[in-house]
Design goal:
- Helix content is about 65%, strand content about 10%.
- The longest helix is centred in the middle third of the chain and has 101 residues.
- Helix 9 runs parallel beside helix 10 and helix 10 runs antiparallel to helix 12.
- The chain is rod-shaped and about 150 Å long.
- It has 3 domains: about 210 residues, Arp2/3 complex 21 kDa subunit ARPC3, CATH 1.10.1760; about 70 residues, Signal transduction histidine kinase, dimerisation/phosphotransfer (DHp) domain (Helix Hairpins); about 160 residues, Histidine kinase-like ATPase, C-terminal domain (Heat Shock Protein 90, 2-Layer Sandwich), CATH 3.30.565.
- A hairpin with a 5-residue loop joins strand 1 and strand 2.
- The strands form 3 sheets. A 5-stranded mixed β-sheet has the order 4-6-7-9-8. It has a two-stranded antiparallel sheet with strand order 1-2.
- It has about 475 residues and is an alpha+beta fold.
């Protein structure tokens, strides 16, 4: 009868421990690393075996009957990992020494250590076997219970006849029943863990998807904003373009009509002046149309670059002839200089290089009221890792209105100028710098800008040598 009492006491203790362990796992260890979970399980299993011994039945002074092997069976079913099971078996056996070192304690250590290796072997079998989970559990419980009884008969201090007739008929079925009960508890626990893991993974997936949706929303909002800005800029560009086109067209139409309707009162000088204005208006109109066509080709990726020999030494003279008069009309000093180390000839597209420089010089003269506009041609060297690169640099400097730092990138965008008032006051379409920047990239170079508001500007075109 005492054995049955011990059976129920041990059962109650182990169930209580299992319930407390379940609570602790849910609220503390669920999100811990796997290593912490394994260590916690080993400590809990060894502690359960030790507490089972504390409440065990003392047959003699040094002989204790308990169910300390049950936590090992539970571990074999819940954590089928050989090394962990060996540690639990040996650790549980060593706890028997806390009640005194004697023959019975040594037999207990040996028994649990053997059961630890048996459970390790069974875990390997469960991993490789294709049998059902229920069959594996039942076989594990039966094998461990049988070997436990054999170990007690072989190594135990209780006489074999007494153990077989008085103790074994109660302890053997009790151990199997208790192990079966815990197998059911473990099954429910594992199913709950599986459901919890699925919920956690689903929550993580939902969180990741929510975060991705939020990022996509931000990207879409930014793109919508950019599209709105682009639409606004293009609307302003079209309004500005209509004015820019209308002005030379009106001049051409009106003056050509005057020439057509001329009478004897109109002098030859007046006719020549009208013709000159018509010519300039036609050139302005052609330049405008070419800019629009170039921008369309750049956006479509169809602008062709023809690389050939470019005579650098001729550039200052050509640009001087084109811009010196315009600068003098505004009372500006126009300076061109070239360093001695500049090569006379480079390989590039002459038409596009001159187009970029004309845009830069035209802007410099347009936005400068007093002071000077200069073009300086020099050679620059840059170290890029182990590679040393050489560039020919065309620097256009002025003492004009300048550009604030926050608008340096803005002005290189298509249809944009640093300030809307600039378009009204100085005119222009806002295409020049954008086209020049794209052309510089196609030529293998780039354009830099140094400028402050009301402090002038310095644009530099870098082309590779």
């Amino acid at each position: 009868m005492e054995y049955l009492k011990i059976f129920f006491v041990n059962t109650a203790i182990l169930i209580t421990l299992a319930y407390l362990a379940n609570l602790i796992y849910k609220h503390t260890i669920t999100y811990a690393p796997d290593r912490i979970k394994k260590i916690s399980w080993v400590v809990l299993a060894i502690f359960a075996g030790w507490i089972s011994s504390i409440f065990g039945y003392r047959i003699e002074e040094n002989v204790i009957f308990d169910l300390r092997f049950v936590p090992l069976i539970i571990s074999a079913l819940a954590y089928p990992q050989p090394f962990i099971l060996i540690i639990i078996g040996v650790g549980t056996g060593l706890t028997r020494l806390t009640f005194g070192v004697n023959e019975a304690a040594v037999a207990g250590v040996l028994n649990l250590s053997i059961l630890g290796f048996v459970c390790a072997a069974l875990s390997l079998w469960m991993q490789k076997s294709n049998a059902s989970a229920g069959y594996k559990r039942i076989m594990t419980i039966l094998v461990v219970c049988v070997i436990n009884q054999i170990n007690i008969l072989v190594f135990g201090v209780i006489p074999a006849r007494e153990y077989i007739t008085d103790i074994m008929p109660l302890t053997f079925p009790a151990g199997i029943i208790l192990s079966m009960l815990f197998a059911l508890i473990i099954r429910d626990f594992q199913l709950e863990l599986l459901r919890t893991g699925q919920i956690v993974r689903a929550n993580e997936l939902l969180s990741a998807q929510t975060e991705q949706l939020h990022k996509n929303k931000i990207v879409l909002e930014e793109r919508a904003k950019l599209l709105s800005q682009a639409s606004q800029y293009k609307s302003e560009f079209l309004a500005n373009m209509s004015h820019e086109l209308r002005t030379p067209l009106n001049s051409i139409i009106n003056l050509s009509q005057l020439i057509e309707e001329q009478d004897d009162s109109q002098s030859r000088e007046e006719t020549r002046e009208y013709a000159a204005i018509i010519h300039r208006s036609g050139q302005d109109l052609l330049t405008l149309i070419n800019d629009i066509l170039d921008m369309s080709k750049v956006e479509a990726g169809k602008l062709e670059i023809v690389k050939e020999e470019l005579n650098v030494s001729e550039i200052p003279e050509l640009l001087s002839q084109q811009f010196r008069v315009a600068a003098q009309q505004k009372g500006l000093e126009f300076k061109i200089s070239m360093h001695a180390d500049v090569p006379p000839v480079i390989c590039s597209d002459p038409q596009r290089v001159q187009q970029i420089l004309r845009n830069l010089l035209s802007n410099a003269i347009k936005f400068t009221m007093t002071g000077y506009v200069s073009l300086n041609v020099r050679v620059s060297e840059e170290q890029e890792g182990e590679l040393r690169r050489r560039w020919i640099v065309f620097e256009v400097e002025d003492t004009g209105i300048g550009i604030s730092a926050e608008k340096h990138e803005l002005i290189f965008g298509a249809f944009q100028q640093a300030d809307r008032m600039i378009t009204r006051q100085y005119g222009g379409t806002g295409l020049g710098l954008s086209i020049s920047n794209d052309l510089a990239g196609l030529l293998g170079g780039y354009i830099t800008l140094q400028s402050e508001e009301n402090q002038g500007s310095r644009f530099a075109l870098y082309l590779p040598l």
